Fold this protein.
Amino acid sequence: MSKKGQGALDLSEDRARALALTPVSRETAARLDRFVALLLLWQQKTNLISPSTIPKLWTRHVADSLQLLDLAPPEVKIWVDFGSGGGFPAIPVACALAERPGATVHLVESNGKKAAFLREAVRVTGAPAKVHVTRAEDFGDSFGESADVVSARALAPLKTLCDQAFPLIGKGALGLFLKGQDVASELTDAAKYWSIQADTVPSKTSPEGSIVVVRGLKAL
């Protein structure tokens, strides 16, 4: 998108719709505004999100991320996000948790260019987050803390996410995985390898979307 195109883009209606779906404090909204501005700037040179979704950036990406907070434990402090990429859901979640003492969101991203964007997003927003330049499958076993939540969005099939997240879920983390219309087949496939304690919650932002809430995992 050119600078001229970016300047002509009015996201105010979509922003209002998103924050009506997933209300946040004034301070969090200000952090989110800074993040969205940075994302649009970097998007001109680096493909962080699908260009077709930019007019609905707030509902399609920001609110889609924020809805996970309602499914997380009330006192969540340590959150791990796999494949953070363009910052979703990790950065909106971190912006919302900035007012919670001791909260930290760990962003796991193996792509160096995207990791550089994430570090800048953390700096600009002041969100309590740390960027780890590594692969999701290599993170869990080396993570020295017990996570409250592990999340992923548009990263991998559920079976693969279970493989990657088991070291964290096995220690008590809640898995929150944003999924599309193929969630039923993904659950069926994952169940061939894992005994999964899970619920499927409809998405607030996408009629065909859902969130798989994984409370327990046991390898078969």
About this structure: Confidence is low (pLDDT under 50) at residues 1-7. The beta strands are 78-82, 104-108, 129-132, 149-153, 174-179, 194-202, 210-219. Residues 15 and 124 are 19 Å apart (CA to CA). The longest helix spans residues 26-43.
